[in-house]
Amino acid sequence: MILPITAYGDPVLRKKGKDIIKELPKLKELIENMWETMYNASGVGLAAPQIGLPIRLFIVDTTPFADDEDLSEEDRKALDGFKKVFINAKITEETGDEWAFNEGCLSIPDVREDVSRKETITISYVDEDFMEHTAVYDGLLARVIQHEYDHIEGILFTDKLSSLKKRLLKSKLSNISKGKIKVDYRMRFPELKKGR
Q1: What does pTM read for this prediction?
Q2: What are the extents of the domains in the chain?
Q3: What is the pLDDT of residue 194?
Q4: What residues act catalytically?
Q5: Burial grade of 35 (CB within 10 A; 0-12, 13-18, 19 or more)
Q6: Helix, strand, or coil (residue 110)
Q7: Which of these, 47, 51, 98, 150, could form a disulfide with 58 (CB 3.0-4.6 Å)?
Q8: Does domain 5-195 have CATH number 3.40.50.300?
Q9: CA angle, corner 139, sides to 135 and 141, nearest 5?
Q10: φ, ψ dihedrals at 107, nearest 5°
């Protein structure tokens, strides 16, 4: 089932997600719905807060990036077919130089900005079968994971912008929260919810 994506301005996007247990009712169904929702919106990642749930769950499928001609062959190989579920994730280390890359977010449509992030991460998590993993990722793969991880920490990519950039985006962000934007996927807008 395709779920509405929570728009910028909703308080759920600012909550630090709670750990979840294996016995969470309908977890498999929730994950399937998240995949369907993400693909419907042409995303490469989706976190539970983006569908209104303040829990530590996000999904990533970087396969669409594998077609990017601007990336190195090595990067394209790493991204192609990378599809994972991250539950109760914890980034334990971020290393390397910071580098800027243009990011966007399904909860903040039509806003794209350069964001600086560390090159390499170490992350511990459990998968959908609650098997434990610790992995090291770098480059664009690390960036996508960092972006989604931020969501379960209550952080948005716009928080990482300079105060000048934030001021320049203020009216655009306000319009998103009010639903004054056209998107080709289902969204839930906080300002419209208040008025009902």
Answers
A1: 0.94
A2: 5-195
A3: 53
A4: 148
A5: middle
A6: strand
A7: 47
A8: no
A9: 55
A10: -80, -10
